[in-house]
């Protein structure tokens, strides 16, 4: 589950272009159970409605492929199938599954789109509750749930997939929004030659070029304050896109979906390896990567680990990550960068 911890800083606006100049267009809407915001320099001779239609068409195609809210989506159909029954998948589905498999392997299975049976077992599907921590599932219940999770139980054969065990299901919510950002950014570039844009879906962001002030885009990262909301957010740091470059960024955090029990804060995120909620993980993790999909998936993978393990994994894999953790006095927050992030943003 993702919140929206990133804001685009342009004067006083949060996620928008910086002025009302007609050369920059803004598009907002709803998709994938969240909102999207797009700002771009409008090319001459192109109908803005055509650009909007292209964006809507691609987003709809991704939803039809991977939305667990749609009964007739490809992913929903797959989740209902018995084992050893193949189903054809489209190119979008195949790319997200391939990215998921790469993160699954590199993260030692911390990122696992089949993990939902464990989330449901712990009662964290929609809302955290301390009651389940007071009376947790026993070892047999956890083992039973773990028997139907594992991305290695999903086999790919060309453009079809099948599961090896009944009950295995996929949920790409931790990577699909990032993928959709990549797709829309690519549509703006390839179909319309747009090279100055910001695309944001559910807090995952891609930027390229300049905003309408002629400046690189600047992204603000929220402080992980437990009782904060989108309206009461506080900025803890900012990341400015390299001049004439791009940013592909995602942030994952637990502080708005966690509970404290016996002095330990537990996340709504379940560690697929242990079968337990994550305890003492970093409250907020921001990842930069070659694509927003990979940034999105890696942010989730690192959130599914205790902080020390996450930092070690990110450094081992060369991930550009920024961890926000409680300081030793528990009076505020410290920012810890991986080696790769420090090289990218030394200040």
UniProtKB/TrEMBL annotation:
Binding site for Mg(2+): 174, 296, 300
Alphabetized UniProt keyword annotations: Cell inner membrane, Cell membrane, FAD, Flavoprotein, Lipoprotein, Magnesium, Membrane, Metal-binding, Transferase
Subcellular location: Cell inner membrane
Cofactor: Mg(2+); Mn(2+)
A Pfam family hit: ApbE
E.C. number(s) listed in UniProt: 2.7.1.180
Main subcellular location: membrane
One of the record's GO molecular function terms: transferase activity
Protein origin, superkingdom: Bacteria
Membrane topology listed for this record: Lipid-anchor
Cofactor-binding details, from the entry: Magnesium. Can also use manganese.
Signal sequence region: none
Catalysed transformations (reactions): L-threonyl-[protein] + FAD = FMN-L-threonyl-[protein] + AMP + H(+)
Any one annotated GO CC term: plasma membrane
Family the entry assigns: Belongs to the ApbE family.
Job description of the protein: Flavin transferase that catalyzes the transfer of the FMN moiety of FAD and its covalent binding to the hydroxyl group of a threonine residue in a target flavoprotein.
Protein name per its UniProtKB record: FAD:protein FMN transferase
Provenance organism: Moraxella porci DSM 25326
């Amino acid at each position: 589950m993702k919140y929206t911890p990133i804001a685009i800083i342009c004067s006083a606006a949060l996620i928008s272009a910086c002025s009302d100049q007609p050369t920059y267009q803004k598009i907002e809407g709803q998709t994938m159970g969240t909102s999207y915001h797009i700002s771009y320099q409008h090319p001459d001779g192109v109908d803005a409605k055509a650009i909007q239609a292209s964006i809507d068409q691609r987003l709809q195609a991704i939803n039809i492929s991977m939305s667990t809210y749609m009964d007739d989506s490809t992913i929903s159909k797959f989740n209902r199938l018995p084992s050893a029954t193949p189903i054809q998948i489209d190119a979008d589905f195949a790319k997200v599954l391939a990215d998921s498999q790469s993160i699954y392997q590199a993260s030692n299975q911390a990122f696992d789109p089949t993990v939902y049976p464990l989330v449901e077992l712990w009662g964290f599907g929609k809302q955290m509750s301390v009651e389940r921590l007071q009376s947790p599932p026993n070892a047999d219940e956890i083992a039973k749930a773990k028997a139907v999770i594992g991305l290695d139980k999903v086999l790919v054969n060309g453009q079809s997939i099948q599961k090896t065990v009944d009950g295995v299901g996929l949920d790409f919510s931790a990577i699909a929004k990032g993928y959709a950002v990549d797709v829309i950014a690519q549509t703006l570039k390839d179909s319309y030659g747009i090279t100055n844009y910001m695309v944001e879906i559910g807090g995952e962001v891609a930027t390229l070029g300049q905003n309408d002030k002629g400046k690189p885009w600047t992204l603000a990262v929220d402080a992980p304050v437990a009782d904060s909301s989108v309206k009461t957010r506080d900025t803890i740091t900012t990341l400015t896109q390299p001049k004439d470059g791009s940013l592909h960024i995602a942030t994952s955090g637990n502080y708005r979906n966690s509970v404290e029990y016996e002095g330990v804060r537990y996340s709504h995120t379940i560690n697929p390896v242990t079968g337990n909620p994550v305890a003492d993980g970093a409250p907020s993790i921001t990842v930069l990567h070659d694509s927003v999909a990979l940034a999105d998936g890696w942010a989730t993978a690192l959130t599914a680990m205790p902080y020390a393990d996450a930092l070690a994994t990110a450094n081992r894999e060369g991930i550009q990550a920024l961890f926000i953790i409680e300081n030793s006095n528990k009076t505020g927050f410290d920012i810890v960068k991986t080696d790769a992030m420090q090289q990218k943003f030394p200040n």
